[in-house]
Amino acid sequence: MSVWSASTVGNNYHYAHPASRDSHSNNWCPNLTKHKCVMSGETPIQTDDALHTPAYLSWRKLQLSRAKLKASSKKSALLSGFAMATMVEVQLNQPEDTKVPPAMLVAFTVCTTLLVAVHMLALMISTCILPNIEAIGNLHSISLVHESPHERLHWYIEIAWAFSTLLGLILFLVEIAILCWVKFYDLSVTAAWSACVVLIPVMIVFLAFAIHFYMSLATHKYEVTVTGIKELELLKEQIEMGDHDGRMNNLTLLEQSRIV
C-alpha cells in the first residue's frame, strides 16, 4: 500500500474514531501489521511518481553514505587494531643477533604507522559524520532529508571510503609481506621470500578487481542516467502533445461558439 492510500485510511479512521483527551499515542494507523506507514516508525513506501523526485534521490544518497560510513568505521577499527597488535607483539632481536636488513625494519615501521594513520583518519571521519546522518535517517521521513549533511560532506565520505577500502587494504597486504620478512628472515630466507612471491599475484588480483568494480559501477551509473534522461525526454514530448491537443480542442470549441 502506498503512502497516499495509507494516509487516506488513517484520515478516515481518525474521523470515524476521534482520539480521546487522555490518549497520547502518535500512531494513527489502525493496523500497523498490514502495511507500513510513516507514523509507524518504518521506512515509508513511495509511489512511482515520488521515486523520481529530487528529495527521493537525496534520500537514496543518504542511505548509501550511511552504509559507506558504517562499513568504513568497522573495517578501519578492525584493521588498525590488528596493526597495533602486530607492532606490539612482534619480537625483534638485537642488531648484532639478527640478519634482517635495516631497510626492512624501516619499511615495517613506516608501513605500520601509515596503516594505523590511514585507518584512524577514516575512522575519525566516519565517527564525526555518521551520527548526523543517522539522526535524519532514523526518522524515516524524506521531507527532512535536506537537514542531513551527506551532500555537503560528500567528498569527506568518499575519502573515508577510499582510505578504508582501497588504500587501507593495500597497506595491510604490504604489512603482511614485510612482517613475514622481519619474522622469518633469521630462520629461513626462503620463507621470507615465499611470502612476497605469494603476495604479488594476490595484489594483482586485488587491484584488478578494484579497477573492474569501479569501472562496472561507473558504467551502471551512466546507463541509469541515460535511461533517466530518455524518460524525461519522453515525458516532455507527452506534455507537449497534451498541450497541443488541449489548444486544438479550445480552438474548436471557440469556433463552434462563434458559429452558434
Automatic annotation (TrEMBL):
Record carries keyword Transmembrane: yes
Task: Indicate how the chain sits in the lipid bilayer.
Answer: Multi-pass membrane protein
GO CC annotation: what is one? membrane
Q: Which InterPro entries match?
A: CRAC_channel, Orai_sf
Which spans are transmembrane here?
104-130, 159-185, 191-214
Record localization? Membrane
First-listed, main subcellular location of the protein, grouped into a coarse class:
membrane
**PANTHER family attached here?**
CALCIUM RELEASE-ACTIVATED CALCIUM CHANNEL PROTEIN 1
Write the protein's name. Answer: Calcium release-activated calcium channel protein 1
Q: Which organism is it from?
A: Papilio machaon (Old World swallowtail butterfly)
Q: What is the lineage of its organism?
A: Eukaryota, Metazoa, Ecdysozoa, Arthropoda, Hexapoda
